[in-house]
């Protein structure tokens, strides 16, 4: 089997504005090429045959990582390898630094970008899940407007987001003021670097009595999009974590999720994993919250 | 830059220290470019969708899949392939160690692994076994069972702390 992409027009713009202009002119046929670690495989297999590729790899300013007035601002073109190494990311959003090594392999993280992973919207991918639990915002631009969408409203269904064909994701913003001290990212995959069967991310804050004051728990691989667990929040807020309570959370999550069956795992197995990994994430985030204080 | 389908453009890049000026159409994969246009068939092509790691090369020092890049994208870049690892016909210490520890059988996966291992050792001269295995997770080897590969890299890591792929 030959595995070569179909022909396409290739554009390499010099500015973001030019990229947006080209995207607009291409109508529905334009595709942004960033790291290419999801797009190029599907082009090679001819699952996608975009007529026009707009390569944004050379664009200045799309890969900056900075902290500004309470927001971590991560340019959409920031490589996944940077996310695991960047000191600002480690300090302000350690959850992302913890999730990054789970994405593919070093050889794919060297190219793959945070924005590419978010817009690809694989239901078990690490970046979408982390950004959901962190309550991040996606900055999206087209020729004529810039809008900001909460990641919680960004995913529509499998591999489908709120982004329109003439729009491009340019930046991700994560509010860090009052961000919970306890964090955890855990996942299960068949082999290291494979797509996760199930992953879980959690943020927890506690008071001096070790009671949980706030919690966000999100799961990937259990539905068409990553989901936040409402039941976990209801069960946990105001409580100290005990093994009894943790078991309850596990059961609640299993009841709450509605996974699909596929080649890799049955519905029951994914549901089982969801409970197990929800518990692991909550336990670890709680431990870090009560030890943490300033250090996280 | 604007190229229509099938329109050729000239790219100029350095591969293993040698300058290449070649003409390519947009859809040409870097892996095919290296093999067909540069004649460097040491870069192997297995799955062509980013899974097996056989096509891994160093792009400006970073280990990446050459089957997931278009040749037009690397205009001006510096690339290293397996052909650029030896010094004047002598295997480098990493290659020697591969031979010594039976880290290859059919050799299909070997070029990619050598480049990834070179990157690892460049940035982390004393990797732990775990770090070596993490790097190796990006490569499929259907022959060796990986043990010999890990041993070979460990050997270089301990014997010659200053080892870099630049030799
Ligand atoms: S041929 Fe490139 S990863 Fe398999
Ligand atoms: S030596 Fe044959 S695939 Fe690795």
TrEMBL record, chain A:
One of its GO terms (molecular function) is FAD binding. Gene3D superfamilies: 3.30.465.10, CO dehydrogenase flavoprotein, C-terminal domain, Uridine Diphospho-n-acetylenolpyruvylglucosamine Reductase, domain 2. Residues 3-179 form the FAD-binding PCMH-type domain. It comes from the Bacteria. The keyword Oxidoreductase applies. Keywords: FAD, Flavoprotein, Oxidoreductase. This is Carbon-monoxide dehydrogenase medium subunit/2-furoyl-CoA dehydrogenase FAD binding subunit. It comes from Melghirimyces profundicolus.
TrEMBL record, chain B:
The keyword Nucleotide-binding does not apply. It comes from the Bacteria. Pathway: Alkaloid degradation; nicotine degradation. SUPFAM superfamilies: 2Fe-2S ferredoxin-like, CO dehydrogenase ISP C-domain like. Residues 9-85 form the 2Fe-2S ferredoxin-type domain. Keywords: 2Fe-2S, Iron, Iron-sulfur, Metal-binding, Oxidoreductase. This is Carbon-monoxide dehydrogenase small subunit/2-furoyl-CoA dehydrogenase 2Fe-2S iron sulfur subunit. It comes from Melghirimyces profundicolus.
